[in-house]
Amino acid sequence: MRKPTRRTETGRGERVVPGAWRLRLPLPLTGVPHCNAWALAAGDGVVLVDCGMDTRGSLRDLERALEQVGLALDDVRLLVCTHAHIDHCGQAATIQERTGCELWIHPRHEHLTAALDDRDAAMARRIEIARQSGVPEAPLQAWAEGRREQGTGMSGPLRPARDLLPGVVVETDLGPWDVYETPGHAPSHIVLHQRERRLLISGDHVLGRISLYFDHGWTPDPVGEFLASLDVVDRLDVRLSLSGHGRPFTNLHGHVEGNRTLVRERLDGVLGALVERGEATAFDLLPAVYGERLMPETAAWLLTKMLCYLEPLKLELAVRRVDAEPVRWAAA
Ligand SMILES: [Zn+2]
Ligand SMILES: [Zn+2]
Predict the structure, then answer these.
(1) At residue 292, does pLDDT exceed 70?
(2) Strand order in 45-49's β-sheet?
(3) Residues with Cβ within 5 Å of ion ligand 1?
């Protein structure tokens, strides 16, 4: 999670197509200024897809965005989350409490819920991984200190009523939405496809502005899973994609291609840096691959991605892990 920044915006709502509204909710995160929730007309109310992070004023932002399009929180009949990241499910507990609605989410949400169940253990685990990856002690402690002072971004525990898996259908006035599993960005990630209207709610799997992130440590090869999940959405007939951040976009295929290219560039970058430098820790590789000065706000995020890029390279036998303290990597 990135460092909180001061919020300057409020929630905004706009109609995307008849019966579907974008609710743009501000986020207090460096580099991620807002996220989207989607309201879909369903009988006498709406299905809400994603709901934003729990932070000061966040419920008011959601209510304001709904009001702008003539809706209210009490209209929510069902909450569906594309994945278990706090900017997508953070307010679930409050919304369920206020409306009595059910929450549907993919069952592989332990990448979030394990940390909520035992925050200290999750923190200790992250610190150990960072240390093993070559992060120097002083910035590591400073980062850990900052993290301890932050809230969880969740208004309460996740209490899903139903596992959001293929075969489950989300019924709306626009028609039924089918569930496709798309792990990679997060193990719990799904997308929703409305076939007749050729609409896709793509969550953070495919964004309008290409930006990669993968959860590390829950599945063997998040990057490989992400690439396979790109193939899944590439096969769907889609006119308009409604993503977790940014504006709705057309040309899903072009965005899928852009993601594939960027992943390949990153993998090549990691391998190239190892060929050039010889043995290096994951942390040492960050400036070589990202070509930017590391900021405390983004270093943890980049390191997580770096660890994910090393996995497929290891599986391809392009790199090998040198078991040392800290762990080093070398081109094979
Ligand atoms: Zn996410
Ligand atoms: Zn997100």
Answers:
(1) no
(2) 12-17, 20-29, 32-42, 45-49, 76-80, 102-105, 162-163
(3) 85, 204
